[in-house]
Amino acid sequence: MLLVTLLKILAIGLTVGAAGHLFVARHQQVPWWSTALFGIGAAFLGTVVASALGVPDDHPFHGVRVALQAVCAVLGVALAILLSRRGGRARPGGLRGRPGRRAGRAPR
Predict the structure, then answer these.
(1) How many CB atoms lie within 10 A of CB 37?
(2) What is the pTM of this model?
(3) How many CA atoms within 13 Å lie on the side-chain side of 45?
(4) Cβ–Cβ contacts within 10 Å for residue 52, how many?
(5) DSSP code of residue 94
(6) How far apart are CA 41 and CA 88, in angstroms?
(7) Which residue among 2, 12, 14, 78 has its CA within the 20 to 30 Å range from the CA of 33?
(8) What tens digit of pLDDT does each residue of 10-47 get?
(9) Is 69:51 a contact under the CB 8 Å cutoff?
(10) Which residue, among 90, 84, 80, has the nearest Cα to 40 in the 3D structure?
């Protein structure tokens, strides 16, 4: 049963992560691995929430459990997209530039 649960988590997380990347994140420069990891992690969180709520795991495809995993995965992918928007802005100095220099300016 544990193997089936892990496979469901992977399948749901990767599917939602790929869909989020194809439909939204691709246009906002979000890496595919970010949406996949957040989707898988959030689907795992959905499994934990379903277990805490007492949803039975007696059938491999229990509708409520799968729905909770999918909803959490969608929220996780949305979080990945929001976090990548914030982290994508150029900062003075940046990771490659020297401290104190502004990006885009020519040295005097």
Answers:
(1) 17
(2) 0.66
(3) 14
(4) 8
(5) T
(6) 22
(7) 2
(8) 888 888 888 877 877 566 777 888 888 888 888 888 88
(9) no
(10) 80
